Amino acid sequence: MRHTTVLKSLLLSTILFTLMVTSAHAQSLPTVTVQGEGTVSVDPDEAVVRFGIVTQDEDPEQARARNAKASAEAMNKVRALGVEDSDMRLETLRLQPKQEYNRNTRNYVQVGFEAVREVQVTVKDLEALPTLVAEIIQGGANRLNGVTYQLSDRESVKQDALREAALNARIKATLLAETLGAKVGAVESIAENGISIPRRTFQLETMAMARSADAAAPEPEAYASGQIEVTAQVTVSFFLLNQ
């Protein structure tokens, strides 16, 4: 039993000594630290349309009722184009006094009430976007607040950008090392500095406040999305070895 204990102690001492030597050797190696940046350009595959429905009346209840009717018509138009209810979000209805400036009295006077409801729709078929906006306007919306293009699978694009950033860091480190007569070894440390995924937002022309049957939607050319550039940054330290 005592013999086994002595062997275990010797083995543990050998492992610890080896680790200490390896660690000391690694700490004695010079390093090079660089920042890498990677950018991936992708086409957006989703759009978020934000629009408003505004109704007015001298009677606050009538203003609210008219808004509810117009909102239902607009949402039915959206559903008819195949948009799921889970991709539609209605904000809380706001009912507020409607005021106008009186030049004679130089004061604002109340002329009735205004009911406002904001709606957000996520569109997963970008080719249908111009038609959807036109139908929304014809269906009862009278404010088009903008269209934001985005990515449905952000995680995979983030990973691609990180790979590009890591490769860029190694290229930079290799260039610096070879210029000074050394070569890049293993990675000592790596840190993610951040990932930028901008959303492309377009403020399309605001529709007239008054609802009309011939309200015009923006032309299809107005919906050109372009690409989204996803950028990642990393900081990497490499050990340097002699050539």
Short summary of the structure?
It contains four helices and nine strands; from the N terminus they run αββαβββαβαβββ. It has helices at residues 2-28, 60-80, 129-139, 154-179, and strands at 31-42, 46-57, 88-90, 94-102, 107-123, 143-150, 182-196, 200-202, 228-242. A hairpin with a 4-residue loop joins strand 4 (94-102) and strand 5.
CATH topology of the domain at 44-151 and 199-223: Alpha-Beta Plaits
Total helical elements: 4
Count of DSSP strands: 9
The CATH architecture of the domain at 44-151 and 199-223 can be named as 2-Layer Sandwich
- Please mark out the parts with pLDDT under 50 across 5 or more consecutive residues, or reply none: 13-25, 206-214
Tell me the overall shape.
Answer: elongated
Question: What can be said about the biggest beta sheet?
Answer: 6 strands, antiparallel
Name the CATH homologous superfamily of the domain at 44-151 and 199-223.
Protein of unknown function (DUF541), domain 2
Secondary structure elements and pairings:
Layout lengths: L1 H27 L2 E12 L3 E12 L2 H21 L7 E3 L3 E9 L4 E17 L5 H11 L3 E8 L3 H26 L2 E15 L3 E3 L25 E15 L1
Antiparallel strand pairs: 1-9, 2-5, 2-6, 3-5, 4-5, 6-8, 7-9
Overview of this protein structure:
- With 243 residues, this protein is of the alpha+beta class.
- It has a domain at 44-151 and 199-223: 2-Layer Sandwich (Alpha-Beta Plaits).
- The protein is built from four helices and nine strands.
- It has helices at residues 2-28, 60-80, 129-139, 154-179; strands at 31-42, 46-57, 88-90, 94-102, 107-123, 143-150, 182-196, 200-202, 228-242.
- The strands form two sheets. Strands 2, 3, 4, 5, 6 and 8 form a six-stranded antiparallel β-sheet that branches. Strands 1-9-7 form a three-stranded antiparallel β-sheet.
- Helix 2 (60-80) packs antiparallel against helix 3 (129-139).
- The protein starts with a helix and ends with a strand.
- Residues 13-25 and 206-214 have low confidence and may be disordered.
